[in-house]
């Protein structure tokens, strides 16, 4: 099996790697794993080609092609248990069989550890009072040097200090290598900064982690004293009182466990967009290219749809006069069906958008709160972590119900939802920038939002002068979606919701050779 990935810029397929060859079988179970960086906010296209090997040649054209499968990395991780089964295609009129692709996140040491230490009978260093002890932790590096990774607080005037518990990522303590040395030095604090060295001891994360079931005691030794004095025993002891290990869960843990992401679109039909039949209108339907609304909708929607199993998206409009009686509506279904506002796939949403442009009359004013409250009503019904809602609002400008919109966002910030706002056209987007809440957390009548759930971008920042829409829209999607996994995790964590273990997944630790400290999330297929 040969894996190809696609470059974002010019969409060319590049060979990423090949599995081993398995002889004489029609049901190969490949051992070779492909390790890829995973980004929620990007569309990462993959292609799997299968070949029947006829000779030792590396040239694929010398072998028989057996079929292929196209997908995105998001589709694989978004499947239940991150396991996806698809038919192979590529040979006309022939059933090529199926391929099963599984992904697992590489646990690049996601543990944090909460530890508490105390000291006993430490050496007295101060002439007048007792010592003022504190601890300094160092992790050892490959080359034998040490890097400081933690300092405790100072406990004043005692030889038997109890330090406060502290939490530290295991990566910081030992770089993911459980047997690597950790050096701990004990000092007596001095006001002038010339802290006196009391002594040191050495341990490893493996030894520390036994502290969850027993006290561990170390002798604090001062090598200089040991050399000088025959009768020297130690400079006191340090005891690990407690040790709790906490595994940091990730966005993918929830997706793998079956959490669904529900995507809703809301489109601005106010008159300030301009008459849709005129080329100057932001809603102009040209036979040759998509308008800004359609481009933004497709850029964001195509990525989120991989995480939504039914691919049915409610699509709403606001600020228009509806047929037959011309009443103004601030939350109407684009497909004209209030009982079933769902559209099939992103293409279905675009189709409904074009149809509604033909039947409604652009009007106003621009009210955001009705569509926010619409999604919030659904989100308030599933607070158990099984679903998360993303509302994409595309609008051309000045918000007329700013106070109500802020109130709606503050209310929504305690629900499983995030809001993406894309501003189209040349207007000033001051209110939208304020709603984004990156600078100042948004508040309404003295209540602050529980978390930041709004992400705003102006569409004009992404228009490619050379007309390369693919690249510029990929950048837009990246910027609006990059914050979603963190907003999602904030909701789950502050509600104490743990990921579900899906029926398929067998908990198998990746072999230790794979556990490298890597920063981007990695998945193996």
Main sheet overview: 7 strands, mixed
pLDDT averaged over residues: 91
Count the DSSP helices.
12
Distance between the termini: 12 Å
Roughly how many Å is the radius of gyration? 30 Å
Structural class, please?
alpha+beta
Strand content: 25-35%
Task: Walk me through the topology.
Blueprint: E1 2-6, E2 13-18, E3 35-37, E4 45-52, E5 64-72, H1 73-78, E6 83-87, E7 98-102, E8 104-105, E9 111-120, E10 133-140, E11 146-151, E12 166-169, H2 170-174, E13 181-188, E14 196-204, H3 205-209, E15 216-219, H4 223-228, E16 237-247, H5 251-256, E17 260-268, H6 292-304, E18 312-318, E19 320-322, E20 327-329, E21 332-333, E22 342-344, H7 345-359, E23 361-362, H8 369-379, E24 387-395, H9 402-412, E25 417-423, H10 430-436, E26 443-444, E27 447-448, E28 454-458, H11 469-481, H12 484-494, E29 522-524
Parallel strand pairs: 17-18, 17-24, 24-25, 25-28
Antiparallel strand pairs: 1-2, 1-4, 3-29, 4-5, 6-7, 8-29, 9-12, 9-16, 10-11, 10-13, 13-14, 15-16, 18-21, 18-22, 19-20, 19-23, 26-27
Helix pairs in contact: 6-11, 8-9
Keywords: Calcium, Metal-binding, Repeat
Region (Disordered): 499-525
Biased composition (Low complexity): 502-513
What would your notes on this structure say?
α6 (292-304) packs across α11 and α8 (369-379) runs parallel beside α9 (402-412). The protein is of the alpha+beta class. The protein is built from 12 helices and 29 strands. The radius of gyration is 30 Å and the shape is globular. The strands form 8 sheets. Strands 17, 18, 21, 22, 24, 25 and 28 form a 7-stranded mixed sheet that branches. It starts with a strand and ends with a strand. The model is unreliable at 503-520 (pLDDT under 50). β24 (387-395), α9 (402-412) and β25 form a beta-alpha-beta unit.
């Amino acid at each position: 099996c040969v894996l190809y990935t696609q470059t974002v810029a010019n969409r060319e397929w590049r060979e990423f790697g090949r599995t081993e060859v398995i002889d004489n079988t029609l049901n190969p179970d490949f051992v070779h794993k492909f390790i890829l960086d995973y980004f929620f906010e990007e569309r990462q296209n993959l292609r799997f080609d299968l070949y029947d090997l006829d000779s030792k040649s590396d040239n694929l054209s010398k072998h028989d092609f057996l079929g292929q499968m196209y997908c995105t990395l998001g589709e694989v991780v978004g499947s239940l248990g991150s396991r996806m089964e698809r038919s192979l295609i590529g040979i006309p009129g022939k059933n090529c069989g199926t391929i099963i692709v599984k992904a697992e996140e590489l646990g690049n040491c996601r543990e944090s550890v909460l530890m508490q230490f105390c000291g006993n009978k430490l050496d007295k260093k101060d002439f007048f009072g007792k010592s003022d002890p504190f601890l300094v932790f160092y992790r050892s590096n490959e080359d034998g040097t040490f890097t400081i990774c933690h300092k405790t607080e100072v406990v004043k005037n005692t030889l038997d200090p109890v330090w406060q518990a502290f939490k530290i990522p295991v990566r910081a303590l030992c770089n993911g290598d459980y047997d690597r040395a950790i050096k701990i030095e004990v000092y007596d604090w001095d006001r002038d900064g010339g802290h006196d060295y009391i002594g040191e001891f050495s341990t490893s994360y493996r030894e520390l982690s036994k502290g969850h079931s027993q006290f561990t005691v170390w002798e604090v030794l001062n090598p200089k004293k040991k050399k000088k004095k025959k009768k020297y025993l130690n400079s006191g002891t340090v005891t690990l009182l407690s040790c709790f290990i906490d595994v940091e869960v990730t966005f993918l843990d929830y997706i793998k466990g079956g959490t669904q992401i529900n995507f809703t679109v809301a489109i601005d039909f106010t008159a300030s967009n301009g008459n849709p039949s005129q080329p100057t209108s932001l809603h102009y339907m040209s036979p040759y290219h998509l308008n800004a609304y359609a481009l933004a909708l497709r850029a964001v929607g195509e990525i989120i749809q991989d995480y939504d199993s039914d691919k049915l998206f409610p699509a709403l409009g606001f600020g228009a006069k509806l047929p037959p009686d011309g009443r103004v509506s601030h939350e109407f279904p684009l497909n004209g069906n209030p009982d079933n506002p769902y559209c099939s796939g992103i293409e279905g949403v675009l189709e409904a958008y074009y149809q509604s442009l033909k039947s409604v009359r652009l009007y106003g004013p621009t009210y955001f709160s009705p569509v926010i409250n619409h999604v919030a009503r659904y989100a308030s019904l599933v607070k158990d972590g099984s679903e998360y809602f993303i509302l994409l609002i595309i609008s051309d400008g000045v918000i007329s119900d700013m106070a109500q919109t802020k109130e709606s966002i503050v209310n929504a910030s305690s629900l499983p939802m995030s809001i993406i706002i894309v501003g189209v056209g040349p207007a000033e987007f001051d209110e939208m920038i304020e709603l984004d809440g990156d600078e100042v957390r948004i508040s309404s009548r003295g209540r602050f939002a529980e978390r930041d759930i709004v992400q705003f971008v102006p569409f004009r920042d992404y228009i490619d002068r050379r007309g390369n829409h693919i690249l510029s829209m990929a950048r837009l999607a990246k910027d609006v979606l990059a914050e979603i996994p963190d907003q999602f995790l904030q909701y789950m964590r502050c509600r104490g919701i743990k990921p579900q273990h899906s029926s398929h997944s067998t908990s198998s630790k990746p072999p230790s050779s794979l556990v490298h400290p890597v920063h981007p999330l990695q998945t193996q297929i």
